[in-house]
Amino acid sequence: MSGEKVKLKGIEWKRYGPLLLNREWCKGCGICVAFCPKNVLKIGEDSKVFVDKEEDCTSCTLCELRCPDFAILVER
Amino acid sequence: MAKSLEYIRLDKFPHVWCPGCGIGIVMGSIIRAVDKMEINKNDVVMVSGIGCSGRMPGYCDFNTLHTTHGRALSFATGIKLANPKFKVITVMGDGDALAIGGNHLIHAARRNIDILAIIINNWIYGMTGGQYSPTTPLGSFATTAPYGQVEPPFDVLKLIKGSGASYIARGTVYHIRELDKLISGGLQKKGFAVVEVISQCPTSFGRRNKMGSAVEMMKRQKEETVPVKKAEKMSKEELKGKIVRGLFLDEERDEYTERYEKLIAKAKEVHQK
Amino acid sequence: MSKARIMSGNEAVVEGALVAGVRFFGGYPITPSSEIAEVLSRLLPQVGGKFIQMEDELSSVGAIVGASLAGIKSMTATSGPGFSLMQENMGLAFMAEVPCVIVDVQRGGPSTGLPTKVSQSDVMQVRWGRHGDQNVIALVPSSVRESFDLIIDCVNLAEEYRMPVVLLLDEVISHMREKVILPEKDEIKVIERKKPPKGQEKYFPYEITEDAIPPMANFGEGYRYHVTGLTHDETGFPTSDPEKINQVMRRLYQKIEKHKEEIIKVEEKYTEDAEIAIFAYGSVARSAYSAVKEAREKGIKVGLMRPIILWPFPYKKVSDLANKVKRIIVPEMNMGQIIAEVKKVSFGKVKVEGVNRIDGELITPSEIMAKIEEVS
């Protein structure tokens, strides 16, 4: 289920396909959005990341690698 | 996945760095390098100086030491020499490593002591509000360069090469997979390893120099850098305004603490005679 | 009993440091302390220790603090100009509570001053050289033998109280060669830092304990704690909470305040019936003692109070002294630094006068004698 809550190391994450988001940690810099090769991510009205097209995600992990806030994890 | 969570002090998150700051990206890369080598966290010491980069050890679940401005390498030298089993990583900014800590940097390189030194170069003093640093490009604006920087910058890698070291590399936070390789290579190297990481400070450098957001600044890292292999085939004219990135030096040289262990053996022998 | 030997103060410092368990030296050459580095560069590796000549005094203290965090007893040696440079990372050692020893062989100043001449120029720099509040421990030997004893005390105090401790030597003590009989190793007490109890799961490196001295784990022992020069709470992480800051900084101050009576060490000679007292430390105390004996022969009731540990300052003892004598003389090789501390607790009780030299020469017994005669 999209948006399902997941606990990892006592921290709450939300799952969207292969992506896990921690919107508490996200500062909305937009780096993950700008450099996602498949335009999967977007910044919401609350200035934080959300998953727009989870079905397009190829789990390339570039968002996880470039996120300065450790707010995205990718399951592979 | 989720490997990074095993190496960070979760209760300290979210961290203090500004939105879009590259320091967090560098931290992720360092963590992946440690994880790749499967080093016990108890044997890792992370040392920093002062500035935005100085905060990194506080977020990493290693033995961590946040020292005085510019002095990270001197503390790291004491730790490594006292107990060579430690894997020692120092994290410094451009002002930290090259201005106030410049002397320690060249001497650590000269000794070729087994320390990985990460220099996060964002061209500016971020934490104190955007004053010019020894890497601020000529003409750039800073709070202490309101008419544009008049001092030429250091070429960090040439400086290190002239001093010693076993491993010298330059990466960017945009080229993240390459950065992972460079940092991992530096961590695995026995000897003094320097990785200069070009990073963005959207708050204190980008804004003042009309470079746009963190994203725009990272796009520049893509456009304004060339890999070292490609640069070899480029003319001086073509290289103008470009920053060369990649692995610049990877040499086998005698490491300092190993040389010191030999000295101890010799001293004991002399003593017994 | 060991054989009698002839050695200098600097050599005695080396011998004592090794006995006390120092196995790491990081330093930078400077007259008149360099022999300490030279001899240790030869002796330390013979016992598996490490010697490193750093690029300056800033990094020297950095290196010894690093080595100490790694679990090795560490020290450096310097003189006035180098001591000024060391203040920065000494501040970190106070704040982060890392044991280490700094030997300062004093010379004339300010600046390059008098590299080869005697002075007591750092007695206040050691107390107030860094910004912020911190209690300090500084020891002031009067002889070569005492240099040996006190460097051991320095290492022990550093370990016991988790802090930098300073041995303040006068140049003349460091270079003077005297006959000494050193004690056997088994007669010497060596203290190790207090560790967290074995098997303890959670470790707070700056825990507020009853004795105000938190146990210290070394790096690599599994606790993976954080050390910073920023004001931190008991967990070691920076804090800006006024309540926490107050609590932690007061604990740091209390660490010495609470134990000062155990730390303070003063020697008294002929003070019981004294009408005039001399308060002198380091090499000057030797001239003062000669003057006291001479005065006594002449029937003048003079006594000597000599702090062996200068900081924490023996205010109570000086105050008691001021209650019973008519005059206190404070000879020192500066324009009058410690005299101010004596005056603090003598005000309204007794007149305090200085005998001062700043020309790089010793204060002689006859100069002190002249002052005694003048005031008696």
What topology, given as strand order, has the largest sheet of chain C? Answer: 3-2-4-5-7-6-13
For the record, what is the CATH homologous superfamily label of the largest domain in chain C?
Thiamin diphosphate (ThDP)-binding fold, Pyr/PP domains
Which radius of gyration of chain C do the C-alpha atoms yield? Answer: 21 Å
How far is the N terminus from the C terminus of chain A? 17 Å
Structural class of the secondary elements of chain C? Answer: alpha/beta
**Overall mean pLDDT score of chain A?**
95
Distance between the termini of chain C: 44 Å
The share of residues in helices of chain A is 10-25%
Order of helices and strands of chain A: EEEHEEHE
CATH architecture verdict of the largest domain in chain C: 3-Layer(aba) Sandwich
- Measured by DSSP, the beta-strand proportion of chain A falls in 25-35%
DSSP helix count of chain A?
Answer: 2
Largest interface: B-C, 41 and 44 residues
The topology string of helices and strands of chain C comes to EHEHEHEHEHEHEHEEHHEEHEEHEHEH
Describe the structure.
The complex is a heterotrimer of chains A (76), B (273) and C (376). Chain A has 76 residues and is of the alpha+beta class. Chain A has helices at residues 31-35, 62-66; strands spanning 4-8, 11-16, 19-21, 41-43, 49-51, 72-74. In chain A, the strands form 2 sheets. A 4-stranded antiparallel beta sheet of chain A has the order 1-2-3-6, with no helix packed on it. In chain A, strands 4-5 form a two-stranded antiparallel sheet. Chain B has 273 residues and is an alpha/beta fold. In chain B, strand 7 (167-172), helix 7 (176-188) and strand 8 (193-198) form a beta-alpha-beta unit. Chain B starts with 22 loop residues before the first helix and ends with a helix. In chain C, helix 3 (57-69) packs parallel to helix 4. Chain C has helices at residues 9-20, 34-46, 57-69, 80-96, 125-128, 144-161, 171-175, 242-257, 260-263, 284-297, 315-324, 339-346, 365-375; strands spanning 4-8, 24-27, 50-53, 74-78, 100-106, 138-139, 164-170, 177-181, 226-228, 266-269, 276-279, 302-307, 309-311, 327-332, 351-356. In chain C, the strands form 3 sheets. A 7-stranded mixed beta sheet of chain C has the order 3-2-4-5-7-6-13, with helices on both faces. In chain C, strands 10-12-11-14-15 form a 5-stranded mixed beta sheet, sandwiched between helices. Chain C folds into 2 domains: 4-187, Rossmann fold (3-Layer(aba) Sandwich), CATH 3.40.50.970; 267-375, Rossmann fold, CATH 3.40.50. Chain A binds chain B through residues 8-11, 20, 24-25, 27-31, 33-35, 62, 64-70, 73-76, and chain B through 1-2, 4-6, 8, 10, 13-15, 17-25, 28-29, 173-174, 176-177, 180, 213-215, 218-219. Strand 2 of chain B pairs parallel with strand 9 (226-228) of chain C, so a sheet runs across the interface.
